[in-house]
Design goal:
It contains four helices and ten strands; from the N terminus they run βαβββββαααββββ. It is of the alpha+beta class. Helix 1 packs antiparallel against helix 2.
Length: about 280
């Protein structure tokens, strides 16, 4: 447990919002879908991340574009933060245009030391309900780490040896990243400010949003799930993906009927791993 942040464990907040068809239309256009979900139809998996996002005033943002530390989340001082993965349970459909509520609760805060220095891990539980019944439950992992030293050369990526049944290419351009950041009200500058991404956070280029990749993998799972709705989707980010560098969505059916899924980077590296199960 991270010393000084024990008081944040168990802290809760609640947000209510209508699942607007206009937002679903915009997401459908962003993903180049011929027909986005209509009013009363189920919101596709992963699209819940378009809603319930805090609208911090510009004067309340940190240099990285995120809201300043404190408030609901503990003020962990490590400068770099990212969404590392989630474990999601889809209990029932969340209809477009429904009024919904998300209750969030901090489950744990832990500190560790890795190869790159100090790390802090925060786990937050989100439960989205509609008409008094839970529809989506998620445990979300956020990692905080030290800044990347200037001039540090990343190790060559290891080629992932997964053999897919299905594979599809994705070309992440600046428009895709911009639209997704706008739809999720995500001000993190690594997704749209190339100079900041390179010179402040040490990335070679703009970073593809992890939840965008996870959303694409969920869409990929549904496409290969014989029309069944998702019951569970767990994912873990491994290596960043970058703008202008095509990557692949890949997967195969496991012996237990679940799908093993992953995003493979342009050098063959594992960027994200996931497991999907169906209702």
């Amino acid at each position: 447990m991270t010393a000084g942040y024990e008081a944040w464990i168990g802290r809760e907040e609640e947000r209510s919002e209508r699942i607007l068809a206009a937002i679903a239309d915009a997401m459908g256009a962003t993903l180049d879908l011929e027909r986005p979900p209509q009013s009363g139809e189920a919101l596709p998996p992963g699209w819940q991340w378009l809603f319930f996002n805090p609208a911090a005033r510009r004067s309340e943002l940190g240099v990285d574009g995120h809201p300043r530390r404190g408030g609901f989340l503990p003020p962990i001082e490590l400068p770099r933060r990212m969404w590392a993965g989630s474990r999601i349970r889809y209990l029932a459909d969340l209809p477009v245009e429904a009024q919904a509520t998300r209750r969030s609760r901090i489950l744990k805060v832990e500190s560790k030391t890795g190869r790159s220095g100090a790390l802090s891990f925060l786990t937050v539980e989100h439960t989205i309900s509609c008409d008094g019944a839970p529809r989506i439950c998620e445990e979300q992992d956020i990692v905080y780490r030290e800044a990347t030293p200037p001039g540090l050369i990343a190790a060559a990526p290891k080629v992932y040896d997964g053999v897919p049944q299905w594979s599809r290419s994705v070309e992440p351009d600046t428009t895709l990243l911009f639209r997704y950041s706008a739809l999720t009200f995500n001000g993190h500058r690594i997704h749209y400010d190339q100079a900041y991404a390179r010179h402040e956070e040490g990335y070679p280029d703009l970073v593809v949003q992890g939840p965008l990749t996870a959303t694409l993998l969920q869409q990929f799972a549904v496409e290969h799930g014989t029309g069944r709705p998702l019951a569970r989707f767990d994912f873990r980010g491994v290596t960043p993906l970058f703008v202008g560098r095509p990557f692949r969505l890949e997967g195969r059916e496991a012996d237990d009927g679940t799908l093993a899924l992953w995003a493979r980077g342009p050098a063959g590296e594992l960027a994200m791993s996931a497991t999907a199960a169906f209702r």
